[in-house]
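Forwarding the complex inputs:
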Amino acid sequence: MQKDNTTSALPTPAARVRQRKRSNEVPPEASKANGNHLLADDRNKYRSMWIRAHSTVWMIGGFALIIYMGHLYIWAMVVVIQIFMARELFCLLRKTHEDSHLPGFRLLNWHFFFTAMLFVYGRILSQRLVNTVTPDKFLYKLVGNLIKYHMVTCYFLYIAGFMWFILTLKKKMYKYQFGQYAWTHMILIVVFTQSAFTVANIFEGIFWFLLPASLIVINDIAAYIFGFFFGRTPLIKLSPKKTWEGLLFVSYLVAMQAHHSKPLYNTNLFMQLANIMGRFQWLTCPRKDLSTGWLHCDPGPLFKPENFDLSGWVPRWFPWKEVSILPVQWHALCVGLFASIIAPFGGFFASGFKRAFKIKDFGDSIPGHGGITDRMDCQMVMAVFAYTYHQSFVMAQSCSVEMILEQILMNLTFEEQQDLYVKLGQMFRERQFRQS
Amino acid sequence: MQKDQNMSVSPTPTARIRHRRRSNEVPSEFGKSNGSHLLVNDHNKYKSMWIRAYSSMWMIGGFIAIIYLGHLYIWAMVVVIQIFMARELFNLLRRAHEDKHLPGFRLLNWHFFFTAMLFVYGRILSQQLVNTMSTDKFFYKLVSGLLKYQMVICYFLYIAGFMWFILTLKKKMYKYQFGQYAWTHMILIVVFTQSSFIVGNIFEGIFWFLLPASLIVINDIAAYFFGFFFGKTPLIKLSPKKTWEGFIGGSVATVISAFVLANILGHFPWLTCPRKDLSTGWLRCDPDPLFKPEHYPLLEWVPQWFPWKEISVLPVQWHALCLGLFASIIAPFGGFFASGFKRAFKIKDFGDSIPGHGGITDRMDCQMVMAVFAYIYHQSFVVPQSYSVEMILNQILRNLTFEEQHALYMKLGQIFQERQLGLSSSSMSSYVM
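Prediction (whole assembly, two chains):
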């Protein structure tokens, strides 16, 4: 019974509190409970809450430190997390018996991993790398060439791995090998999509990385605590420990905004968070190169406070007559809605996956929690959404003639600028020709 | 024995000749042959060669007709081929028993297929469409609005499919459902990567689609015939009917024909001009410097009686050599992959759409590897463009209205003029001093 409790655990991961008992920690006598899986009825929950809270505090502390240190270090953290996630997932469906007959097969996985890393980060960092080495002519040429042939390099690395795979196919192991090959691809896609989007967001401004990640964390903690104390109705068969009470509480946090948008009454946690974060230049400025120094920039129109007059809304005795809201808070609202309602599906997916393949945890790196993938599954869904949202709604708003002109003058060499000018002219002429 | 020969077939597919017997066509008395798998020793080969040649002729004929019709029709053909490939592959690992308990699961596959199609073709066509629809204001606004938010739309469609998948997970079927989900993703990635690259190449000029595809075909036919007449040494355990003689002969033939074919194809503007919009009319353009013939005098190299004193070589023929090398040496690995895959899952063919050949996927497996390479080669070595310029150009086209683009253009022009004036005045002043 208790073992059942532990396997059918809450999989909503966040790098924070999650109360899930590990089978070797819980004494068996508590298993004579009424068979109810809900957390509210777990006797041992307070004890494991402490264990969990402890490692959570450490994780949050480390995270805050890295945020303080800057973009490059955050990127390095993402890469490290990726490597550990990939390692956990690679090991997951491996069967030791077959592996003994296939030397060098594990190496193939890491070859593809390295290729994917080169491809993904090459694209994202190419422009910033160019901006960093601009003063030095020789390095600039070298880097420019590397970037130009980046796609070919990655392609040939991939083809080399592909040919290696085919040449090492062994009779009677075909099915296992093909299964592993497909599995490797799926893992790499899942891991690298989210990290590529995360890193792209980081260089647009730490705000766009920090806000979604924090929202997931808060969502998880809030749903957990509420479910801990009041949870009665199970939410979904996949995750018996999640409850409707938890979900509704979180939705309440999100919904409480339009009617009470006064600063102190603003019970919308997400919007407040965005308000606080939006005031730090370290978090809101984009990083155009790979330096680690301090950042100064003109905060875009999104981060300039707008003052709303409140005189019609509040009674006479209320001291504050107007509210200053950063426009970015409205974006935070959308992101927050997504984080509460859709991101948990990442957790359900991981939960179903573990049941399908009868595994309890993805790994055991984090004491009291599970593996890194357990922490990151909701983050993955969120990271992709945050990037898509940013590209479609935030960047589009801030694109104007002046901004693009500035980009052109700053980022392109004289020849490239001329090239762009010529191409634009051609396009206009063709368009006019077609219209006439 | 004969059945064995049927199973261990060479899978290099192309839409052309491939000699592979189907088990229900060959009479069983030939099974008592010497157990050798090589094609040279097959008695029935001439008969099946005719069957194969016949359907190949039809396929080549249809292909040429579509090339003549133009870019849009080629694109449509690629889309149709994609749909059939996806259908074959979706059906491949499905188990009828489990499927009964999962109504609507097949629909999920097609939902993801539709999302992928929207995503891939939306990106490619965004530029083309913008250029086409400049006449009608309302339609233009609608389409450009769709394209602007294309990423979000595709993302939400995908998330909807993801949530649908999770909500339909059934107890005791988790493993099957997750397996199917992963399988769907792999299929879609394989099918759409190659088709998006093909379509990307088509609009750069049909030449860059036709040449790689033809090279694969030629490689296959040449390797087949060399194996037919001279094949003795098996090449790889995965495909017992392939031989080293066929491989080497095919490679040489492919490289030579790449050189010659590029010359022939490079003289048609229909094939070499890029298509900037979605019209279907005739194309006229300034031939790219790649397609302008260069003349090399041959005086020292050839004897006196040789009539031609110089040869004209299009620079693009050197690129064709590289493509030919790749097509003969690396592209067959696509075929080996498909062959190994079929053995792993104990299937004989991917489908049976094409009589005498197999399914569409059987024909397309080498093409897929080649299409990706052709696109990457083109982007890296043929088109001398810079990544940054493309990026900013895309931004301009996507995010600014026509008036804003014009304003940007004017301002850039002004800046250049000022820069030139500034340079000339400073140089004059230094000269004076």
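Residues 53-102+170-383 of chain B form one domain.
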